[in-house]
Amino acid sequence: MFSSWFRRRPAAASRPATAAVAAAPPPAHPHVEQLERRELLAAVATESKIKVDHRFADGLPRNQSEIRIPFSERVRIADADQIQVRGYAWDPDTEIQKKVVLHVVSATVSDQPNNTSLVTLITDRMMRKGGRIMFLAGALEHVADDTAVAAQTVRSPRGLNREDFTLASRAFKPTDLSKFDDAIYSGAPSPDTASTVRTEAQVEPAFFAFLEEKVSRGLITDAERDEAVTLWDNSRARSIITDHNMRAALLSLVGTVSEQAINAVLSDQNATDAPYTFVGFASVPSGTVIADADIRESDGRLRIRFHPDYAGEPFQALSAVLAHEVLHQDTDEGGVEEEVIGNAFENVVWAQQIDVDADPSNTGTRLVAHLNTELLALLNSGRTEFPKVGLLTPWIASNQRDAAIKHYGQGVFFGSSPRPSGGIYTSWENFLRRQYLARGGISKSSAGNNTLNIYMDQFGVDYSGRFNNTVLNLLDTNMDNVLSTSMALRLASILDLTVT
Question: Can you list the domains of the chain with their CATH numbers?
Fold first, then answer.
């Protein structure tokens, strides 16, 4: 009455009792026993217990990681060159993963309880989650008997994601020099002068299509698009900005950090409490590089004049410069800080505009090459929230002085030539400041205005103050609120940059 699956186990075969208790024969030679003990020593890295801490210096992120790898036996380092670390970044130029070498700056061992060891590595950049830590043959020895530890590879369970690791592995380097300023990259062609005035029939369709793309990306609403279209034909707007390309430039600022510039120009929302009298192309004061903002003596009203050589530039490029010039709203001769801050918003607006439509970045014209070059410096900068993008001196590989970094001396313009007098440009801020100082600018704090305060709001900063270094530090710290890691990588792809 048992279930069908039940089977009785067969009885074990009988065997002599002495067989169960017989002792093993002694070794034929004492050296055999010693060899067997050696083979039992097999120090193994415990992957799941690897710890990673990103290092700081003076309270700021430093592009290094401390990696602690526990081993099951006590070990010593025999050859540190045989300890190698690899990570995988995303190359914006090829849009595929790229293997990156993390140089080991130092390697040490400490004894741990229960006859175990902890190997601690310092790498020359932040560790990638899933990155490989390779102990090649000859890297380690067992402390107990001086035998070599077997080669092994483990993956770090902690570290940066792919996007942040890509930024930690920069500087970005151009693969197409035609997009950049030939004063920085001597191999770049001379940019074209775009001085031909564009007709309304040429500008209007492109402007409307650009607004539609912003709507489709969710950057502006239908109502905001409709308001911009209405202003396109507004009589006051046409009287102040008669040039169609320039009018499209101003109105295309909708949805950017500098959208407030539209109100500042067309209404009384500026320091003079009156609309601007003129924004367009005209004769400019001697020494003006691109544009000049001033208050007309005859009526105390604001105006902005652009050099006529830029009349045919993409309206998106003109919009970036407008975002800068609208910040100058008084008769005070602003200092270098005011100009550098203006350029910060100029470059961020350019980044936002070409993130919507990349085509304007490919024109090969003078203003576009200028903006692309400054944007490259920005993408290679960022101190406070490194590896995020910012304005101040970053801990990127091309700025480091460590002997392991073979590319030291390149700064934020990797592969540039000739070397600038005064040394490499170590950050976006360093590049811009030195340009204005070379033109005779004076470093000083100057009066702020409500337009600056509203611009800062877009970065999540409640600011009401002057043009000074405080603003630059705030923008560096909060740049990620506008120019995120994913956006930075899209921009690097648009500019055909590669990870060095």
Answer: 47-161 (2.60.40.1220), 177-499 (no CATH)
